[in-house]
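Subject: mismatched residue count in predicted assembly?

I count 526 residues in my input, but I want to confirm that the predicted structure covers every chain. Input:
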Amino acid sequence: MNHRGGWALIQNTWQSWIQHRGFFFLLAFGWMLPLLVYLFIWSAAASDGAIAGLTQESLAGYYLILILTNQLTYATTNWTVGDNIRYGQISRWLLQPMSPIYHALSQEIAGKVVFMLFSVPITALLALIIRPQFNLSWGQALQFLPAIVLAWGLRFFWGYWLALLAFWVTRADSLLALQDSLIFLLGGHLAPFALLPPGMQTLARLLPFRYMSAFPVEVLTGQLGVQETLTGLAIQLGWTVLAIVLYRWVWTRGIRHYEAVGG
Amino acid sequence: MRYLKLIGAFFKISSQAELAYRVNFFIRLLHSGLNLLTGVLSLVVIFNQVEVIKGWDMPAALALLGVYLLLGALRGLFIGPSLESVAGMDGEIWTGTYDFTLLRPVDQQFLISVRHWRIFALVDLAMALGLLIYALVTLGTQLTIGMLLSFTLTLLAGVILLYAALLAFSALVFWNPSFLFTWVINDLFQLARYPVGLYPGWLRLVLTWVIPVGLMTTIPAQALVGTLSPLMLLLTLAFTLAAFLGATWLFRQGLKRYTSASS
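Triage response: the counts match. Full output below for your records.
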């Protein structure tokens, strides 16, 4: 496998995306807004006192961190992989002497750099206005690292294997919309895990969607005990391994099925 | 009469084009269903924790969600697709094909506002009306003729305000064709999902009198719940008229700047 070519591609994509930053800033702005809505709604709900142990200030802190981690783990490439398969773009990638996953990875990395250029200053500004409260510690930050890396891996590979179904079905991107809805409901966007009704909490604990977005934030803001964090990390790791296995499996079968038309 | 006939023709042409892709209907159905489901579930989760937020209870918030979905459906039915084709991504102003639109012997603003229809958005419209009727029934006992009348008036005002905002943001493209202004207003419209009174003071002012997405849904819902003062009703109607005239003016000014695009 040619890793040097992959690194060159990563740099290339990143620099080209920074040129078109206006467009990507707009995307980042769009992802930020729904989370801001729920930040304000829960702040209003908690204005008469804490709900389930969460105060107005800690809710604000939770959502501001979630805005950043959500963009760090959101895999935009999964939306374009399907198009590339449908339009035959992927033929060219298959001929290049490196794994086609580098194309997805290069866009992932480029995306994170450009989105953070917009979101970090805006979130910092919002923090000055809203005055959130963060209970951070070095221990939590240390546990946060594996949680956020796994969250990205899980969300990326889970969306990637769904997107690869485009080898057989033309509108596989609907499954990605379904995934986004489930992340919204169970992944801590609509409400932090602690505020969900018991039934949804059970679903959130078992299904992969919470581990794609809210779990690292819960770890970082100290909402979880040691036992809960370790169990969460184990479940997260399990789903990530399954997602990678599924990706490998769908990819090898899809490639055999694939044929391009036209030139 | 001629204008009505034109709308009929536009609707027919758009529908014929879209009905060719039948699978898309089921995909639309899935997306519309998800949209309704996440909307209602959000309210269930929120009001499971608190009974009343700043004077809004579950039935009132449900009515507001109905208004929001109704406006969103109308936007998706024709306002959005029509204006997007002119000012959106790869729109006519950007590519220069707007030349051909300008040559048509009919009022420009009328033409660009009603030209493209998405027949599948009727599904959203039906779902929104269903939810609105359900909310009306749960509010049931306290409704008077006067409230229904002011609800109809303010709902109409909401539609006109939404149209005016979309038109104004589309018109800005004449000044800077490469920026997707229509995306900004689409993003901001999400804030109309909840009563404007739940947002912090500074944001409430902006969302009421600057970018009036707050007025669009909160005022009709207040009319239904009976908390709308006659003064606010008059102010909303006057503001709607001003917004419509202002957006029309801005569009005409922009039109004068159009110089086509050539390569």
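Chain A touches chain B through 33 residues (CB under 8 Å). Marking this ticket as 'not a bug'.
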